[in-house]
Amino acid sequence: MIIVGASFAGLAVAAQLKGYRVLVIDRQPIGAGQTSACGTPLSVLASLGLIEAVQQVHDNLVLHVGQRTDTYRFPRPYCTFDYALFCRLLWARNDAEFLQARALGCQGNTVETSRGFFSARLLVDASGWRAVLASALEPGLVCRGRLNFGLETTTSWQGEGLHFWHDLDGLALQGMGWAFPAGAESRIGVASYCGRTALGASLDRLLQRLGCQRGHIHGGYFPRSLGRPVVRHLFLVGDAAGHCLGFNGEGIRPALFFGFWLGRLLRQVLAGELDVERARRAYAQLVSRRRWGYAGMLVGQRLLMSLSPTGVNIWLWLMRHTGIGDLSLRRYVRAFTFPV
After folding, report:
1. Mean pLDDT confidence for 138-142
2. CA 181 to CA 128: how far, in whole Å?
3. Which residues are CB-contacts of 328 (< 8 A; sequence separation ≥ 6)?
4. HSE-up of 60 (CA within 13 Å, CB side)?
5. pTM above 0.85, yes or no
6. Which strand ranges, in their side-by-side order, compose the sheet holding 110-113?
7. Do residues 185 and 143 make contact, with C-beta atoms less than 8 angstroms apart?
8. Average pLDDT over residues 326-334
9. Is the peptide bond between 229 and the residue preceding it cis, with omega within 30 degrees of 0?
10. Residues 174-196, mean pLDDT to the nearest whole number
11. C-alpha span between 239 and 322 (Å, rounded)
12. Residues ≥6 apart with Cβ < 8 Å to 126
């Protein structure tokens, strides 16, 4: 089988297929091309036995709205981690073959790459928001007008907790800002809920507020709503299937969760225990059961876009003093439970 994409989702699928002939294709080496702030519950890395990749543990969520700052304690600790090390450790769990090449599309069960054509019975599109394989089969599948866009840098700022800003100098009704400390450095970024890409000035204003300067810049689009897990004969996972939670940009847990489950289903197919059509239905049903949660996150994103900072503060006050906020945070942290 062939997996296109060697980040969280693609590596999770491959990790379940040791002993079978698998080709993983990506345009960059394993662990290169980080586009994530790399924050997730500590329990995720603990369950996967990847604690070695942890850079800093965080007990608090810190929300900045206008001049107001509120701190919420996570029900379970979060952490920031080393992306390259995480990917290398997860890759070591399979015996798949890796091909560094750019995937260009597919026809039937044949994948076209910058280094030739490769065919397999099963194809997985884990190529990120572009959904390269699925888009080749159905042009127009991905609409940039329905995507968020983020820009991030790594800098020397240090702190505690995972920080989010709502009223961020020009992004008050359009997106968010964040700072994820990771030991001696932090990943600081801004995002537009409207898919606006000219975010450099807003990022610089946030950095100025924190008293630090730009480092290396990376950015890209990320989904704001759930997409299709199956397109014709293709299995889609991670951002290719819209598994990222657009409201706060968290895509790691969903990518790993769905990736591991998809890998298990495909292992049954390869072992002759499950036919492909039943695997497609089972995978689609697995994703569909979480559709309401994704819908709720999209409602939250739209609410933030429509409210003024004063309105957001009123909303947060109600969430805190009615107990709904703590309940929602506990349910959110428990979502996509590991191990799968």
Report:
1. 94
2. 25
3. 319
4. 11
5. yes
6. 103-107, 110-113, 116-119
7. no
8. 76
9. no
10. 92
11. 34
12. 3, 4, 5, 6, 7, 9, 10, 13, 236, 237, 238, 240, 255, 259
The average confidence (pLDDT) of the chain is 91
Tokens, residue 339: 């191990």
Please, what's the b/e burial string for 270-300 (b: 16 or more CB within 10 A of its CB; e: otherwise)? beeebeeeebbeebeeebeebeebbeebbeb
